[in-house]
Design goal:
4-stranded antiparallel beta sheet; alpha+beta; 22% strand; 314 residues; 7 helices
Length: 314
């Protein structure tokens, strides 16, 4: 399931390891055609194989520790690798506690939330696996404010802490809890990829990993055309459709805003010359009534995923 060491996801010859969990589920469902007994035997086989590899992985860590090679730097490297981290999570061997993993997950999506003028505060993580969050700031004028938390935060937390059972969100205008997100299955945990988000889905876009700062790229995320750009170390994604002329933004450029700081970026449509503020969720600088359609994006240094409406095609 894993590629050779040192080869990141999406590299040459790298199998689609993120789809492994889904493939296991598909094969288990197919085994049901042989009856309940066949299904139970298939599930037992998967559990035994997983336990066997888990015991071997635990022993590898023990040997490294006994020989003095399991230092903090090595633990950090293991925890930062998607494939290794997902296996450590499944077998209860991850070096970081659930609270630290959730805080790191939220930190990874803060650039996207900040582009909407918002932020998220972690209130608590209970012993029974409930995460309580508070939505801060304002997403006024942003068409995707209702999905910012559901997609970006859900995907980040589920990938980092799949043992969480529920996520409750508080907003400044509502005291009651927000959407309840159920825990993913064991096999989706093994794949460590954000799951179905109820009408939207996360699509891997590995080509965006190499996108240089100040560059713009047109890519496909599933069936959706996406316009992506990088400003400094931050990636941003939008539906590839200019809000003013309604056309794909081929040839679009991103540049520093006149009189602004190094991080103040403006995206310009090559066709109609409309200007959009990248960090303000694609707000049009020429007409306040217009804006691009931003898409939630997760980037962890080894993979990039964009959340797109499942029923929308471009």
């Amino acid at each position: 399931m894993a590629a050779p060491a040192g080869q990141g996801p999406g590299g040459p010859g790298d199998p689609d390891w993120r789809a492994a969990g889904e493939r296991i589920d598909t094969l288990l469902d197919a085994s049901s055609a042989g009856g309940i007994l066949a299904r139970e035997r298939a599930e037992e086989l998967v559990r035994l194989v997983a336990d066997l590899y888990g015991a071997g992985l635990e022993r590898v860590l023990e040997i490294m520790h006994e020989r003095g090679h399991l230092d903090d730097d090595t633990l950090d490297a293991l925890a930062e690798d998607d494939r290794v981290a997902s296996l450590l999570l499944v077998h209860g061997l991850h070096p970081y506690g659930v609270l630290q993993r959730i805080e790191q997950a939220l930190e990874s999506v803060r650039p996207y939330l900040g582009s909407h003028g918002g932020d998220v505060e972690l209130i608590e993580v209970t012993d029974d696996g409930v995460v309580r969050l508070r939505l801060l700031g304002s997403c006024d004028g942003c068409p995707s404010s209702s999905v910012t938390l559901k997609l970006a935060v859900e995907g980040a937390i589920e990938a980092a802490a799949p043992e969480i059972s529920t996520i409750e969100v508080q907003t400044p205008t509502a005291v009651s809890a927000g959407p309840v997100i159920p825990m993913s299955s064991l096999f989706s945990r093994v794949s460590a990829s954000p799951g179905d988000t109820g009408g939207s889905s996360w699509q891997s876009v590995p080509e965006l990993l190499a996108l240089a700062s100040g560059s713009v790229a047109q890519v496909r995320a599933g069936q959706v055309a996406v316009l992506a750009c990088r400003v400094g170390t931050d990636l941003f994604a939008f539906r590839d459709r200019c809000a003013r002329c309604g056309e794909p933004m081929a040839g679009a450029t991103v540049a520093r805003r006149l009189g602004g700081g190094a991080e103040d970026a403006v995206l310009t449509c090559a066709r109609c010359r409309a200007h959009y503020d990248v960090r303000r969720a694609g707000a049009c600088l020429d007409d306040q009534a217009l804006h691009l359609e931003p898409l939630p994006l997760l980037a962890d240094g080894v993979s990039v995923s964009v959340a797109v409406p499942a029923a929308v095609s471009a």
